[in-house]
Amino acid sequence: MKVVKVGLLGLGTVGGGTVNVLERNFSEISRRSGCELVVSRASARDISRARICNTDNIQLTTDSNEVVNDPDIQIIVELMGGEEPAKSLILSALAQGKHVVTANKALIALHGNELFAAAAENNVILAYEAAIAGGIPIVKAIREGLSANRIEWLAGIINGTGNFILTEMRDKGSAFSDVLQQAQELGYAEADPTFDVEGIDAAHKLCILASLSFGMPLNFARVYTEGISKITPLDVTYAEELGYRIKHLGVARRTEDGVEMRVHPTLIPEKRLIANVDGVMNAVLVKGNAVGATMYYGPGAGADATASAVVADLVDICRQLDGSAASAVPALGFASDKLETLAILPIEQVKTAFYLRLSVQDKAGVMAAMTTILANNGISIEAVLQKEPKQQGADAQVILLTDCVLESDLILALEQIESLDSTNGAVTRIRVESLQ
Question: What domains appear along the chain, each with residue ranges and CATH number?
Answer without folding.
Answer: 2-135+303-338 (3.40.50.720), 139-299 (3.30.360.10), 349-432 (3.30.70.260)
